[in-house]
Write a structure and sequence with these properties.
The complex is a heterodimer of chains A (325) and B (165). Chain A has 325 residues and is α/β, with parallel strands linked by helices. In chain A, 34% of the residues lie in helices and 20% in strands. Chain A contains nine helices and twelve strands. Chain A has an eight-stranded mixed β-sheet. A two-stranded antiparallel ribbon of chain A has the order 1-5. In chain A, strands 6-12 form a two-stranded antiparallel ribbon. In chain A, strand 2 and strand 3 form a beta hairpin. In chain A, helix 2 packs antiparallel against helix 9, helix 3 packs antiparallel against helix 4 and helix 5 crosses helix 9. The longest helix of chain A has 19 residues. Chain A starts with a helix and ends with a strand. Chain B is mainly β and 165 residues long. Chain B has one domain: Porin, CATH 2.40.160. In chain B, strands 1-2-3-4-5-7-9-10 form an eight-stranded antiparallel barrel. Classes of the chains: A alpha/beta (325), B mainly beta (165). At the A-B interface, helix 1, helix 7 and strand 10 of A face strand 2 and strand 6 of B. Strand 10 of chain A pairs antiparallel with strand 6 of chain B, so a sheet runs across the interface.
Chain lengths: 325, 165
């Protein structure tokens, strides 16, 4: 019966084509050069920092199931990210946004573009976490750092802006303030890294989001503005075979009542602002039973999965920022 | 899809006397969820259409509707069915329907988007359906359909009413 739909489609509807990915040489190089050996040590260091750090105020955020609001920390992780970026040769800055007791400390570092420096490719990951937060979001921060390090060996047409957002676990406060301050208005493509380290033989699917039964893939979550970005990464992956990828793409800005789960990370404020943004994720609580629990520890992660996800991030950055050769 | 009505009439004519025809404008409100395949779509809303009754038994209906909650989606349906000719007027329908507009697409490694629009072919049961001199009213109609790509349409019509004129 597979012919029925194409036949109907041919009569009345259409199957839109995927966009060409562009030159993949730079993507191949960056994917190869990512220092994946550094990933797990970073995840472990971030987790240690979270476990010993002072907890953030949970005023106004009552604890709920899967939301241990008073177990959130971010200060020590921010310090680590700042120090690592500085050691790589960046000149990071801390932007304090919001008001007490929920001031967000976003860390920003840029690698200037050469020919189109005013067009920015943003790579973001939130550095705040509940408990140790190995997957959520030590894995995302580690991938950000590894990509930032790989980038320093090359020049790009566009500027690459790395942002470690604070207070994602407080309703994406850090990225909301960031976008409201106009700090993403020059972004032409954004990658938000949200839980990149967990794989599983089984995968849950909520009703609105049918997913494969095996949790071995990275999900690209897009909206109308970032649809082409997702398709370009998928097409790139056909050539580079980095890892299993899938994409879920919401219409419009994606902020609809039945699809609100797609906007609950730092991609949400960027979507609403009209910034073309992809969230890359292992699907978090739809796969990881340790989500927002004290058991979200480095030992539960799949280092090979995290390495593949990081290579995908680096290759995507090279694709969108355009490596100068 | 306006060929469906004449088709029913033509089939009838081929078997005998001129048919008794009744045309009713209808409105409907309810919800649709398409899920499980490469598209998640639907929402709650309502719409308008036309129902043609042939010989008080055979039904055809074409209607359009607008759904919210997952953006805005246009629903267009055509259906043929049969009803019981009595005050309690349950009916069964074969439906062909499309959804246009906002939706969530699930794309695999081939990077290809699902076809536009989303199609469904299925059945609908109208058990709580009653008719009289002034029209028909039906509540809690349930429908199910397939998009032939792994997706399932679940449909509930909370209320549908048609006025005789």
């Amino acid at each position: 019966m597979k012919w029925v739909l194409p036949a109907l489609c041919a009569a009345i509807a259409c199957v839109p084509e995927a966009p060409a990915p562009g030159d993949l040489t730079g993507a191949t190089i960056l994917a190869t050069e990512v220092d994946t050996a550094a990933l797990m040590p970073w995840v472990e260091a971030l987790s240690d920092d979270h476990l010993t750090d002072v907890r953030r105020s949970c005023e106004g955020y009552p604890a709920q199931a899967d939301y241990p609001s008073c177990e959130l920390s971010s200060d020590a992780a921010a310090t680590l990210v700042f120090a690592e970026l500085t050691a790589m040769g960046y000149a990071p800055r801390v932007v304090s946004l919001g008001s007490d007791p929920h001031v967000a400390q976003d860390i920003i570092a840029e690698w200037p573009g050469t020919t189109r420096p005013r067009e920015v490719v943003l790579v973001g990951a939130h550095h705040d976490a509940f408990f140790a937060g190995a997957d959520d979001n030590g894995s995302g921060v580690a991938a950000l750092l590894a990509t930032a390090r790989a980038v320093t060996r090359h020049r790009f047409a566009r500027t690459i802006r790395f942002v470690a957002f604070d207070l994602e676990e407080r309703g994406s406060l850090g990225s909301t303030h960031f976008t409201n301050a106009g700090l993403a208005d020059d972004v032409v493509a954004a990658l938000v890294l949200e839980c990149l380290g967990f794989s599983s033989p089984s995968q849950d699917s909520p009703a609105f989001l049918p997913l494969p039964a095996v949790g071995d893939f990275l999900l690209l979550v897009a909206n109308e503005d970032s649809r082409a970005l997702a398709q370009r990464i998928l097409v790139m992956n056909q050539e580079l075979a980095l890892m299993p990828l899938r994409a879920t793409i919401a219409s419009g800005d994606g902020a609809f009542p039945l699809t609100s789960a797609l906007t609950r990370s730092d991609n949400g404020p960027l979507w609403v602002r009209g910034v073309p943004t992809l969230m890359l994720t292992d699907t978090a609580n739809f796969r990881n039973p340790n989500y927002h629990r004290a058991s979200d520890l480095p030992a539960t992660l799949d280092p090979a999965f995290l390495a593949a996800a990081t290579r995908t991030v680096a290759a995507s950055v090279a694709l969108f920022a355009e490596v100068q050769r | 899809m306006s060929w469906l009505g004449p088709l029913v009439v033509a089939l009838h004519l081929s078997f005998g006397a001129p048919p008794e025809l009744e045309v009713m404008p209808v409105f409907h409100q309810g919800g649709v969820l398409v899920s499980g395949g490469d598209v998640t779509a639907g929402g709650l809303g309502g719409g308008l259409g036309v129902q043609l009754v042939v010989d008080r038994r055979w039904l055809t209906q074409a209607d359009v509707g607008l759904l919210w909650l997952m953006g805005q989606a246009w629903l267009a349906r055509v259906a043929v069915g049969v009803q019981r000719d009595a005050p309690w007027r349950p009916a069964g329908w074969l439906t062909l329907q499309t959804l246009w507009g906002d939706r969530v697409e699930h794309i695999g490694p081939d990077a290809l988007r699902p076809p536009i629009p989303t199609w469904g072919l299925g059945l609908r049961a109208s058990l709580l359906r009653f008719g009289g001199a002034s029209g028909v009213v039906s509540a809690l109609e349930l429908g199910v359909a397939t998009d032939f790509a792994g997706g399932l349409w679940l449909e509930i019509t909370l209320l549908q009413a048609g006025a005789r004129w």
